[in-house]
């Protein structure tokens, strides 16, 4: 039920990349998901994908009526806690200034795309261009200018150098 709900939200919400229910279910099974709730209601969720020694925080979402109430800080804190023992560099793409502001408090720094290893960038692109995902991009057509506002943020936790 949770996987289907998250998938449906990702299909409808403009800034989110669409995730199929089975992708969300796999994230749940692999313990790559954080959900914040209150009084039996899911308020926020986040999940990530691993690319070798890199982890992409691929989705962070807060239910609209709970935005601006500190849940973004709580969500990033929960992610940080969950990934604290991981020896991987973290990456995140965002268009939202408020997200950038919060993640910078957790050690993320804005970086150019060339800071990512080509193999990681290729895997991210292939994931986003999967043919089953193409139809979901129709929701983005009127928001194409927003794509150019997307910025990459990185956090070095693996001990390797990020340029």
Between the first and last Cα atoms, what is the distance in angstroms?
Answer: 41 Å
Helix % is 25-40%
**What's the alpha carbon Rg, rounded to whole Å?**
15 Å
Find the structural class using helix and strand composition. Answer: alpha+beta
Shape: globular
Poorly predicted segments: none
Order of helices and strands: HHEEEHEHEHHE
Q: What does the main sheet amount to?
A: 6 strands, mixed
Strand order of the largest sheet: 1-2-3-4-6-5
**Average pLDDT taken over every residue:** 85
Number of helices: 6
DSSP strand content: 15-25%
Number of β-strand runs: 6
Summarize the structure.
The protein is of the alpha+beta class and 163 residues long. 34% of the residues lie in helices and 25% in strands.
Write a structural description.
The chain is an alpha+beta fold and 163 residues long. It has six helices and six strands; from the N terminus they run ααβββαβαβααβ. The longest helix is centred in the middle third of the chain and has 13 residues, at 71-83. The chain is globular and about 40 Å long. The termini are far apart. The model has no long low-confidence stretch (mean pLDDT 85).
SSE blueprint:
Blueprint: H1 2-12, H2 21-29, E1 33-38, E2 41-51, E3 54-62, H3 71-83, E4 89-94, H4 97-104, E5 109-111, H5 118-128, H6 144-147, E6 151-155
Parallel strand pairs: 3-4
Antiparallel strand pairs: 1-2, 2-3, 4-6, 5-6
Helix pairs in contact: 1-2
Q: Can you tag this structure with a few keywords?
A:
single chain; 163 residues; alpha+beta; 6-stranded mixed beta sheet; 6 helices
């Amino acid at each position: 039920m949770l996987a289907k709900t998250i998938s449906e939200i990702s299909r409808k919400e403009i800034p989110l990349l669409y995730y199929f229910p089975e992708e969300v279910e796999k994230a749940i099974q692999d313990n790559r998901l954080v959900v914040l709730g209150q009084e039996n209601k899911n308020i926020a969720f986040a999940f990530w994908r691993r690319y070798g020694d890199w982890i992409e925080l691929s989705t962070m979402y807060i239910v609209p009526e709970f935005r601006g109430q500190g849940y973004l800080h709580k969500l990033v804190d929960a992610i940080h806690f969950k990934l604290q023992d991981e020896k991987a560099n973290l990456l995140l793409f965002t268009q939202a200034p408020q997200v950038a502001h919060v993640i910078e408090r957790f050690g993320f720094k804005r970086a150019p795309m060339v800071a990512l290893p080509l193999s990681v960038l290729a895997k991210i692109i292939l994931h986003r261009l999967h043919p089953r995902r193409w139809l979901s991009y129709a929701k983005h057509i009127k928001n194409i200018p927003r794509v150019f506002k997307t910025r990459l943020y990185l956090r070095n936790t693996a001990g390797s150098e990020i340029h």
